[in-house]
Write a structure and sequence with these properties.
Shape: elongated
CATH topology of the largest domain: Transferase(Phosphotransferase), domain 1
GO cellular component, one term: nucleus
GO molecular function, one term: protein serine/threonine kinase activity
Organism: Paramecium octaurelia
CATH class of the largest domain: Mainly Alpha
Helix content: 25-40%
CATH architecture of the largest domain: Orthogonal Bundle
Protein name: Protein kinase domain-containing protein
CATH superfamily of the largest domain: Transferase(Phosphotransferase) domain 1
Largest sheet: 9 strands, mixed
Family: Belongs to the protein kinase superfamily.
Structural class: alpha+beta
Length: 484
């Protein structure tokens, strides 16, 4: 593009070219003997001027501690701004955005909702205080911000927040990114109406997260702060629109980074807390463990390391003594297998992101716990509390029949083997099908009922269940196909 450098006596025309690592300005159209060479460095800042009708009319560069202004038409300047976006700091953010709402705030920064004046599109702007960055005599905080911006510039993936522009004001730095309308994954789980997320949503969510981590691995980047609060839904209530945010603690795999306490208590890989004084280094397996903690929460709606204060959480996180037997029979076997592989305390045997994606869990048939539980309730006659207490021999069902326990019991699994099946239509083989129903509904209860002359004997129940199962599986398959 061409632009005009105005002087009192005589103005000069300059020709501008944008390259991958620098912008050059020359008085010659063949771009020889360039007078201004502006590399894309931390110190580089491009300023802007707008006319009364809010159209761009000039840009400025710092040269010998002065701003040199160049005039041009709006379309050329707007195209220049697009090419320089996220490569260098811009000035005069108020020319382009309006802001009147704070989305979140921390000790060192706040996140504002900003609206683009031209397109009326919404974006999020992370505002970092210069005072906070310069409080320490060391340059650690500045270096972390530089690395965060550098990493965001390299990432181009739908599961990560996208960097659009960076601005520098008198008192703050501004990082303009996507505005995500949905809640954090933490709030999504918390406000979900049912006791358990649907199995297809759990699988979709963890697949998006692991796929994103696999992308980071290909870029040799470690996030180091994967947690429920750092995963947002771009669209409200759409779990397929997950995006990972906040690269403030992110680093590169190479050169190797020595372990230091880094992350959020309860999500930190145990090797970080156990070996940070030794010659050990960060690996991508740290993020896999954190994703495993999220997977645990999705599957069980429980917090993995529960304690009353942060110190106790850190200690449990460090010891990493997980009682897998507690919920082994409450989960689908493929989900349970993947969960154990992700939460392996040993980083050498813990799965990588690619190994997780190759796990059978992402290809197996999902079992809808709630639907299968409802079918068995109806088949056995235990669909209501009153029916249970109407039985004369309540001792055969056990103490779990008490109403208070029934209301808060979780589904448990029981394997039913069907040795003899005579099906006239659409025969299916359920040699070892994992079946789910309430914990108070044990097999010995069914046997006792049939021996007492109940109208529901075991073979009759099996026939009802098998007749219903075909339609349930077909409906479940349609539901999964629709959501995929």
């Amino acid at each position: 593009m061409s632009c005009l450098r105005k002087h009192i006596l005589k103005s000069k025309t300059y020709y501008l070219e944008v390259h991958d690592d620098e912008m050059i300005l020359s008085e010659h159209k063949n771009m020889l003997n360039a007078k201004y060479v502006i590399p894309y460095k931390w110190e580089t800042r491009v300023m802007w001027k707008a006319s009364e009708n809010e159209e761009l009319c000039a840009f400025g560069i710092y040269y010998n501690n002065r701003i040199k202004w160049f005039d041009s038409d709006h379309n050329s300047l707007n195209l220049l701004k697009i090419h320089l976006s996220a490569r260098v700091f811009f000035g005069n953010i108020s020319i382009f955005y309006d802001s009147n709402q704070i989305l979140g705030q921390g000790a060192s920064s706040k996140v504002c909702l900003v609206k683009c004046k031209k397109s009326i599109s919404n974006y999020a702007a992370k505002c970092i205080s210069k005072k906070y960055l310069l409080q320490k005599k060391s340059s650690d905080r500045i270096n972390r911000l530089k690395q965060e911006i550098e990493i965001l510039q390299k990432i181009d993936h739908p599961s990560f927040i996208k960097l659009y522009e960076i601005y520098q004001g008198e008192n703050s730095y501004y990082i303009v990114t996507d505005y995500l309308e949905g809640h954090t994954l933490y709030n999504y789980i918390k406000t979900y109406p049912d006791d358990q997320l649907p199995s297809f949503q759990i699988r979709e969510a963890i697949k998006v997260i692991i796929t994103a981590l696999n992308y980071l691995d290909s870029k040799k980047i470690i996030h180091r702060d994967i947690k429920l609060e750092n995963i947002l839904l771009q669209k409200p209530n759409d779990i397929t629109s997950l995006k990972i945010i906040d690269f403030g603690l992110a680093t590169y795999q190479e050169p190797l980074q020595k372990l230091c306490v880094c992350g959020t208590p309860g999500y930190i890989a145990p090797e970080i807390l156990q070996n940070y004084n030794n010659e050990e280094y960060f690996t991508q397996k740290c993020d896999i463990f954190s994703a495993g903690v999220i997977f645990y929460k999705l599957l069980t709606k429980r917090t993995l390391f529960r304690a009353e204060n942060t110190l106790e959480i850190m200690e449990k996180n460090k010891q990493c003594q997980i009682n897998f037997q507690e919920f082994e029979f409450k989960l689908q076997k493929e989900a349970f297998s993947l969960l154990k592989a992700m939460l392996d305390p040993n980083p050498k045997t813990r799965y990588s992101a690619q190994q997780c994606l190759n796990h059978p869990y992402f290809n197996c048939k999902l079992e809808n716990i709630n639907i299968l539980q409802e079918i068995l309730d109806k088949a056995t006659g235990f669909s209501g509390i009153t029916q249970i207490f109407d039985q004369k021999e309540t001792h055969s069902i056990g103490q779990e029949c008490q109403a208070a326990q029934i209301k808060r019991c979780n589904p448990t699994s029981y394997k039913i083997r069907i040795e003899q099946q005579k099906r006239s239509k659409s025969p299916r083989k359920y040699a070892d099908f994992q079946f789910y129903y309430p914990s108070f509904c044990q097999m010995n209860s069914l046997e006792s009922l049939s021996s007492k002359g109940s109208s529901y004997n075991i073979s009759h129940i099996e026939n009802i269940v098998n007749d219903k199962l075909d339609s349930v599986i077909e409906d479940d398959e349609k539901q999964q196909i629709y959501h995929i």
